[in-house]
Design a protein that fits this description.
- The structure is a single chain.
- The chain is an alpha+beta fold.
- It folds into 2 domains: about 1-105, Orthogonal Bundle (434 Repressor (Amino-terminal Domain)), CATH 1.10.260; about 120-270, tt1808, chain A (Alpha-Beta Complex).
- Helices cover about 35% and strands about 15% of the residues.
- It is built from 8 helices and 12 strands.
- The strands form 4 sheets. The protein has a 6-stranded mixed beta sheet with strand order 3-5-7-8-9-10, with helices on both faces. It has a two-stranded antiparallel sheet with strand order 1-2.
- A hairpin with an 8-residue loop joins β11 and β12.
- The longest helix is centred in the middle third of the chain and has 20 residues, at about 120-140.
Amino acid sequence: MEMNLSRLRYYKQEKGYSMAKLSELSGVPLGTLQKIFSGETKSPRSSTLEALEAVLLPDEKEKSETEKDWPDSVRESAPAYGTQSRKKQGEYTLEDYYALPDERRVELLDGVIYDMAAPSTIHQFVIPLLTTAFQTYIRKKKGRCLVFSSPVDVQIDCGDRTMLQPDVMVLCDRSKLIRRCILGAPDLVIEIASPSSLRMDGKLKLGKYAQSGVREYWMIDPDTEKTVVYWTDETEVPSIYGPMDEVPVGIFGGELKISMREIFEEIRNLGIE
C-alpha cells in the first residue's frame, strides 16, 4: 500500500494537480485526499486508491517497460471509484448508483459520482432546527407541503444520471413523492455548506437546482454565519443575510421568517471550536 501511495504522490506532482483539481477529477472528497497525502490515513480503501490511480497513472503508451510490470493494483485500468465497472466519471447512471453499498454515501450529478464526507456535528445540529421551524409553520397553516431532510434521494431532473440528497427540502407537490425517492424538484432546497462542499453546493448543485425547477435555494455557511438565498427562476442577484438577520421564506410569500440569529446563537452555545 505504501509503495502504491508513493507512486500516486509522484504522479500528482508530475501532473501538477492541486488537491482541489484531483478531488474534482477523481470524485474523492477533498478532506479524504488531504488525509491520504499527508499520511494521516495510513491505509486508504482500495476503491479510493483505484479512483486516484485512474486519474493519475499514465496511459499504456506512456509507461516504460518497468512501469508495465507494476502490480495491477496501480494501473490506470482500475475501475472508477467504488464501482466494478469500466465506466468513467460522467458516464454513471442510476443503475450504478443503486449498485453501490448502502453504507457508502454518494451523490450522482450528471453522470459523476461524488463521495460525501461524513457530516459534522454542527451540520447535523442545524438540520433539525430548520426542519422544526418549517414543520411548525406548515402545521399551523394546515398546509400540505412536506419537509424532508437528508438522507432522502431526490431524482431532481427525472433523468437517470442525477440523484441528489439535499440537506433540507420543502415539497409542496405531493405527486412527486414516491416510495423510493422524490421524483422531481422540491420547491425549496437548503444546503448546510462546509469548506469541502462549497464548490459542490455553490456551483454544481446551484446550476442543477436552477435547471430542474427548484424555486428557492438557500446555502447556509455556519463558519461565516452567512446565508445566501437564490431565486432560481429569476435573474436577480442572490440575497445575502448575516448572523443577526431573519430570512423570509419566499415560497410562503415571506410570511415565515427563519431567525438566523437564534440558529447561530444555538451553534455558538455548543462551545465547539
